[in-house]
Amino acid sequence: EAPLSAVAHTGEREVETTLRPRTLDSFVGQPRVREQLQLVLESARKRGVPPDHVLLSGPPGLGKTSLAMIIAAELDTSIRITSGPALEKAGDLAAMLSNLAEGDVLFIDEIHRIARPAEEMLYLAMEDFRVDVVVGKGPGATSIPLEIPPFTLVGATTRSGALTGPLRDRFGFTGQMEFYTPEELEQVLKRSASILGIAIDDEGRAEIARRSRGTPRIANRLLRRVRDYAEVRADGVATLPVVRAALQVYDVDELGLDRLDRAVLDALVRSFNGGPVGVSTLAVAVGEEPTTVEEVCEPYLVRAGMLARTPRGRVATALAWEHLGLQPPPEVGR
Ligand code: ADP
User: Fold this and answer.
1) What digits encode the pLDDT tens for the residues 187-218?
2) Ligand 1 atom nearest residue 67's Cα
3) Model pTM?
4) 215 pocket-lining for ligand 1 (C-beta < 6 Å)
5) 17 C-alpha to ligand 1 centroid (Å)
6) CA-to-CA distance for 22 and 74, rounded, in angstroms?
7) Alpha carbon of 86 to those of 95, 151, 295, 303: distances in Å?
C-alpha cells in the first residue's frame, strides 16, 4: 500500500469511503468549523435557499472532502466532485455546471490549482448562476449566456493563500480546519476499528492517536498497518507493545514524524545549520516538490514547534535539533 503520508493514494479510496463519517454529528473534532457550518446550513434551510459557497482550508487528510459530502447529505442533495487540476479548460467546468440540478453541491478539491479561464467562468457562475459559453473562434466567435440552477460550491484547498482575491471573495464562508487532538483521534480510531473489526486496546489506540500527526487519514492508515503487524507477528490484538513494534517497522518516530518530515528537519539542521533557508532550496535538498514540503510537511512541523517560517526563510527550533539528537547552537530559540 501507499506510503504513510497525509496525501490520499489510489487504492485507498475504497477504505476511505467505508470510514467516512456521514453526518455532522458523527464528524469528530473541528468544533469551530462544525458550529459555523451548522449555522450556515440551518439558516439556508430556514430561508429555503442553497447556502452560500463554502471554502474549506487546511492540510491534507483533515476531513475537507468528508465535510463536503456531509454538507450535501445534510442538505439532502447530490454532490458532484471534481478538482482544480481536472478543470483545465473553461469547457470542462461548463460541462460540470450544466449538469447540476437545483441545490446540488459542487465540490472542487485543490481549487487553488484551477486554470485561469475556468476560474473566470467560475466567478460568474458563483455570483449570478450563469456562464458565458464562447462558441466559434476569431471574429465570428459569439458568447452564449447559459443559465445554471442555483448550487452551492464547496472548495477545498491546502493553500488558501494561493487563491486569487476575486475567487476568495466569492465564498460566503471559509472554514479553517485544524489539526486534531490525540483525544479526538482516539475517537476516530475507535469508530474505524469497530467498522473494520480490528481488535485494539485503549493503550494501543492512544499510542496511534499520539503519533498520527494530528491527521485522521494518517490515524486510519496506521491503524491498518498495525492490524497487519498484529495479525502476522502477534496474536491479532493491537496492544501497546504491538503498536510500538509496528510503528517502528513503518518508520514512524516517537513524535509521529515520518521519513519526509525527518528528512526536512535533517536537511535544515545539518545542511543549512538550522536556517534560515528558502523552501525551494530545502525541497531540492530532500528531493521533493516545494509544494509537497510546504503543504504536506511543514504545517505539522510548525504546529509541533519544530520549524518556524520567517520572512528570511525556514528556521529549525531548539526542539528540532534536540529531536535529531543534536545540541542546538546557543542563539537558537524555542
Ligand atoms: P481531506 O479532503 O481534507 O484530504 P478527507 O475528508 O478525505 O480529507 O479525510 C480523509 C479520511 O480521514 C476520511 O476517509 C475519513 O476516514 C477520515 N476522517 C477525516 N476527518 C474525519 C473526522 N472528523 N471524523 C472521522 N473520520 C475522519
Assistant:
1) 999 999 999 999 999 999 999 999 999 999 99
2) 6
3) 0.93
4) no
5) 9
6) 9
7) 12, 20, 19, 31
